[in-house]
Amino acid sequence: MNTSAMLALVGSGEYLPPMEPVDRALLDRLPTTPRVVCLPTAAGTEGPERIAYWSRLGVEHFTRLGVQVQAVPVVDRDTAHDPALVAAITGANFVYLSGGKPDYLHQTLAGTPTRDAILTVLAGGGLLAGCSAGAMILGEKFFGFPGWKSGFNFLPSATVIPHFDEIPEALLKSMQLLAGKTLGKGLTVLGIDGYTALVCNGARCEVLGRGGVTVWNRTGKTRYLSGPLPAWD
Q1: CA 27 centroid distance within chain
Q2: 24, 28, 175, 227: which is deepest, by most CB within 10 A?
Q3: How far apart, in whole angstroms, are the C-alpha atoms of residue 9 and residue 18?
Q4: d(CA 80, CA 198)
Q5: What is 6-228's CATH superfamily?
Q6: What HEC string does the chain produce?
Q7: Beta-carbon neighbour count of residue 111 at 10 Å?
Q8: Cβ-based neighbours of 21, under 8 Å, separated by 6 or more
Q9: CB of 11 within 8 A of CB of 164?
Q10: Per-residue pLDDT of the chain (233 residues; tens, 9 = 90+)
Q11: Residues ≥6 apart with Cβ < 8 Å to 121
Q12: pTM, full prediction
């Protein structure tokens, strides 16, 4: 495990009341006055109504927390190149990628000025949070269709599975098969429960929220409910 970025990977529940304690804790970790931008990018194929819903939910959530917040409508490759939207991201220190389709999110951001702006935020000591699809693309690989896809590799040797506590019992065998294929690629599965964040700052990662994080690799399968996690390779 080797990341120099400050990240928060959320299993599910972005912008909802149970996440307020987690997001307050994240805001407190920023070195300067919080300036939040919410990107509904992963929902870009769901139509204007859903894009507006995620944008509004994010703004209302962080407004309740008493900080400056702006929804930035990067929803396709064209808007990911929009100078005004890119400037809004660059001026923030907390970027939040809400949920939707991980393939679409990655394809929309890869190689764009928006991705560069997010990297600028991280390089300046800011924070990147991703929920569900937003968390999945931050690992080395994520599982899409029809197979494994390369993520942004902020967490090398890891693949992120959100909604981990919502997986029905009937799908556990499939999950075990998926994990077996993943372990064969030398990756660690990070299963993140709903209303829970895996927060990494440098090489140190910890669990925040009401659920847990399951670390599943060649050495075994362990669920952590709070506090720091051991390094994985």
Answers
A1: 16
A2: 175
A3: 15
A4: 27
A5: Class I glutamine amidotransferase (GATase) domain (3.40.50.880)
A6: CCCCCEEEEECCCCCCHHHHHHHHHHHHCCCCCCEEEEECHHHCCCCHHHHHHHHHHHHHHHHHCCCEEEECCCCCCCHHHCHHHHHHHHCCCEEEECCCCHHHHHHHHCCCHHHHHHHHHHHCCCEEEEECHHHHCCEEEEECCCCEEECCCCEEEEEEECCHHHCCHHHHHHHHHHHHHHHHCCCEEEEECCCEEEEEECCEEEEEECCCEEEEECCEEEEECCEECCCCC
A7: 10
A8: 208, 209
A9: yes
A10: 445 689 999 999 999 999 999 999 999 999 999 999 999 999 999 999 999 999 999 999 999 999 999 999 999 999 999 999 999 999 999 999 999 999 999 999 999 999 999 999 999 999 999 999 999 999 998 877 667 788 999 998 888 999 999 877 666 556 556 656 665 667 888 999 999 999 999 778 999 999 999 998 878 889 999 888 887 76
A11: 89, 90, 92, 93, 94, 95, 127, 128
A12: 0.93
Give the residue from 148, 211, 136 showing the smallest Cα distance to 184.
148
**Token duo for residue 181:** 């294929």
**Which residues have CB under 8 Å from 168's CB, separation 6+?**
none
Distance between CA atoms of 149 and 128, rounded to whole angstroms?
Answer: 20
- Cβ count near 72 (within 10 Å): 25
